[in-house]
Amino acid sequence: MTAIPIMWLRQVKRYLRSKARIVGSLGQPLLFLVALGFGFGPIYEKAGGGNYLEFLAPGVIAMSILFTSMFSGIEVIWDRRFGFLKETLVAPVSRISIMIGRTLGGATVAIMQGVIITLISFALGFRIHSFWALPIALLFMLLVALMFTALGTAIASRLEDMQAFPLIMNLLIMPIFFLSGSLFPVTNLPRALDIVIRLNPLSYGVDGLRGALTGAYQFGFALDFAVLAGATILFSVIGAWMFSKIEL
Amino acid sequence: MQAIAVKDLVKDFKGLKAVDGISFEVKQGEIFAFLGPNGAGKTTTIKMLTTLSRPTAGSVSVNGYNPLYQQADVRKSFGIVFQDPSLDDELTAMENLEFHAALYGVPKEVAKERISYLFEFVGLESRKHFLVKTFSGGMKRRLEIARGLIHHPKILFLDEPTLGLDPQTRKAMWKHILELNKKESMTVFLTTHYLEEAEKMADRIAIIDLGKIVAQGALSEIKKSTKSKTLEEAFLKLTGHSIREESATAADHMRQAKRMWGR
Question: What backbone torsions phi and psi does residue B150 show, to the nearest 5 degrees?
């Protein structure tokens, strides 16, 4: 169990040290907030949707957590490439504890990123409906972050190098983001799209965050929480199993 | 007791037998040199001994445990210095060593003492708070050696440890290792291309080529059976003069790139 805090600390230290990574990963969410938030704002309002930034901000927060946590998970490939993975895999600690430490570290980093985006949204005019929104929002951030760090770890455990990276990016992360209700309301959609969105675990993370921050749940707190908790456990078990099977 | 016992060990990579039915034993407290040309199967064997890779067939015992089923016990009993880099570039030299000490459960006070001693001994004292990514190849190598010596394992695997090391560090490293070997009866499993090193240090030697062991025994036995004066002469007689291919050649990389572009 000693490996858990050590691996956690390592992930967090690496993140805090790479200033370029922090600043760089803020660019995309900021762009989404400004370009989409202010760009589509008037149309959204005219269509009777209300304040678009209010709607969009939770989606973009979820997006930044999705990206950061997936990349944290996928860091296993880097560690394999640069050799550090070997050092941890021959150490006399269980692989499960290494995996848990890594996942908690990756999730912590993703939550920090999510909190920064939340603060930026505030600066752009986003308002929460009550102070109690924050702890509930943090809970949903945690679940989304854990879930996707574990998923990233599971995927990276099977990959030898970065060549498959564009594949993951375009066939997994992007669809998860776009088909989650983070950018548009999930009402009155074509049947097929509606089904896909309901099968996407991020949809419940976005809804939970949006519900917590603005009070407007679509699926409801209980369903959001249940689906996310279930998916997080499932992905963690799969991730731990795949990680324990790594051969070098 | 045998520190390491290997019987009919095979590792098959999709039809390519990297290790093809080898058997050998390493006694406790012995310095054992495992020699062979590039791509002979040395590193693959070490990976199977150290739980990083599963054997295709055969049996392995490390410190009396089976690396397939008793991974935790096996991992507790050995330390390893890898052939290729395994440091975290984004951490400082100090953090890398502290990380290692914590993972191996070395008590804090002991770790502190050993780390400061090891920094001095590999000449990185003044650089200990620098990020490893700022280090040169040789400095990284020295740091890896230092890291491998923080905990005192029962069995120490050294996979070409002295590759790229200056003579000063090489000498200091061996002095330290021989001390541990004597004092704590630490078993050493060494692969190296510096045959003089093996000649000088090893109690027993095994030579592997194309996945098969072609000779093993004490230095004198190997020299005698091949009618050679030096280990190098014996080595060349046993393994021939042709230069071997490593597993991934430039051509392989080209092929891979081609596949990637879908042609």
Answer: -65, -50
Tokens 């963690």 — which residue? Answer: A236
Residue B63 in tokens: 């410190």
Helices (H), chain A: 3-17, 19-31, 39, 41-46, 52-81, 84-89, 95-124, 133-157, 165-168, 174-178, 191-199, 201-214, 221-244
- A3 CB neighbours in chain B (<8 A) are 103
d(CA A210, CA A206): 6
Distance CA A24, CA A21 (A): 5
Identity of residue B170: R
Q: What is the band of B76 on the pLDDT scale with cuts at 50, 70, 90?
A: confident
pTM of model > 0.90 = no
Residue A32 C-alpha, separation from nearest chain B C-alpha, in angstroms:
30
Name the residue among B78, B8, B19, B17 with its Cα closest to residue B44: B19
Residue A167: the pLDDT is 84
Which residues of chain A have a CB within 8 Å of the CB of B86? 83-87
Chain A: nearest CA to B172, how far in angstroms? 23
Q: Alpha-carbon distance B10 to A130, whole Å?
A: 65
Which chain B positions have a beta carbon within 8 Å of A85's beta carbon? 86
Place of tokens 């997936």: A70
pLDDT over threshold 50, residue B251? no
- Report whether CATH 2.40.10.270 matches the domain B2-260: no
Find the chain B residues whose C-beta atoms sit closer than 8 A to any C-beta of A.
47, 50-54, 72, 75-76, 78, 80, 82, 84-91, 95, 99-100, 102-105, 131, 256, 260
Nearest chain A residue to B256, by CA:
A163
Domain ranges of chain B: 2-260
Q: What's residue B245's pLDDT?
A: 63
pLDDT tens, position by position, B195-213: 999 999 999 999 999 999 9
Identify the domain containing residue A152 by its residue range: 3-244
- ipTM associated with this complex: 0.86
Q: How far is A62 from chain B (nearest CA, A)?
A: 27
How many folded domains does chain A comprise?
1
Q: Best of A13, A75, A90 to disrupt the B interface by mutation (most B CBs within 10 Å)?
A: A90
Q: Determine whether the interchain pair B104/A92 forms a contact, defined as Cβ–Cβ distance below 8 Å.
A: yes
